[in-house]
Design brief:
It contains 13 helices and eight strands. It has 294 residues and is of the alpha/beta class. α2 (38-51) packs across α12 (253-274). The longest helix has 22 residues, at 253-274. The chain is globular, with a radius of gyration of 19 Å.
């Protein structure tokens, strides 16, 4: 029996033995290209959710250029691989940053999961259960661009937020991500669009409409917009200072825009409470299933 099949069967037995609990909602946050502010959005969106009373953990799955820790000025002591290798409990590898934000450095590749021995399966699944009941939301900060890992993460998540800018190259790369996902599934996953670094509200709306129209005309995909973040010098200042702008400059334009994004997401939160979520355990189970079938 292969390792992926063994893990799936173990998880099924484990699920049957557990009481039904409210699962954390897993949100993938990605972009078509690097440099559009995806990780900065992830961090400050987490702080916005925390401000309305939600428990949030960021899991950095950007395998090439993980930088959530850099944005917070944190040198991570541990990573998720330490849990896989049973050196640490999952709650021990959570780093704490400003404003109550919590973060786990991934440092993890799909092959690490596929090579798990059966005796380590029980420990890892129990750890995922701990995380699943620990947070309301788990935000996955993924690598930019198109990769098999990104496709798997998106298909396994409860929903995905796609961050883009008004630059033509950014929009083209964002469309390429959506087009790729369409090729992998008949049931398109839930996407929300965020326009970052727009020079004006008008430019943000026009950018959103162009991408929405392109998706509908060529992919027959209805892409909904979650919100906009206008260009703001305070964002650059906060990056240099390694502090989130939502905390350091709570009244700046970017922070006000982020609050509006969170408020716009409130109906989604209410909807999420009435819809069964895969949870973080279900997420990894689905990723393994997709990895095995590829």
């Amino acid at each position: 029996m292969d390792q992926a099949q063994s893990l799936r069967e173990y998880m099924q037995r484990y699920n049957n033995q557990q009481e039904k609990k409210q699962s954390s909602r897993v949100i993938t946050i990605t972009s078509g290209k690097g440099g559009v502010g995806k990780s900065n959005f992830t961090l400050n969106f987490a702080l916005g959710l925390i401000a309305i009373g939600k428990k949030v953990v960021i899991l950095d799955l950007d395998l090439s250029t993980a930088n959530i820790n850099i944005l917070m000025g944190i040198a991570p002591r541990y990573r998720l691989l330490d849990v896989l290798q049973q050196r640490k409990q999952i709650l021990d590898v959570i780093e704490k940053g400003m404003g109550g934000v919590e973060y786990i450095y991934g440092g993890l590749e799909l092959d690490d999961l596929m090579e798990l021995e059966h005796r380590t399966l029980s420990f890892f699944v129990n750890q995922l259960q701990e995380l699943q009941t620990y947070a309301d939301f788990i935000l996955l900060d993924t690598g930019a661009g198109i990769s098999k890992e990104l496709v798997d993460f998106i298909l396994a998540s409860d929903e995905t937020i796609l961050v883009t800018t008004p630059e033509p190259t950014s929009m083209a790369d964002s469309y390429a991500v959506l087009k790729t996902i369409v090729q992998y599934t008949d049931q398109f996953p839930k996407f929300r669009l965020v326009i970052n670094r727009a020079q004006s509200y008008r430019e943000a709306v026009e950018t959103s409409k162009r991408l929405q129209n392109t998706c509908w005309n060529f992919l027959k995909l209805e892409l909904k917009t979650l919100g906009y973040l206008l260009e703001d010098q305070h964002v650059r200042k906060s990056v240099k200072a390694q502090t989130p702008f939502f905390i350091t400059y709570p009244n700046c334009t970017a922070s006000k825009n982020m609050k509006q994004i969170v408020y716009s997401y409130l109906p989604e939160i209410n909807e999420a409470s009435s819809v069964s979520s895969k949870g973080i355990r279900g997420f990894f189970e689905k990723v393994l299933s997709l990895g095995k079938s590829s």
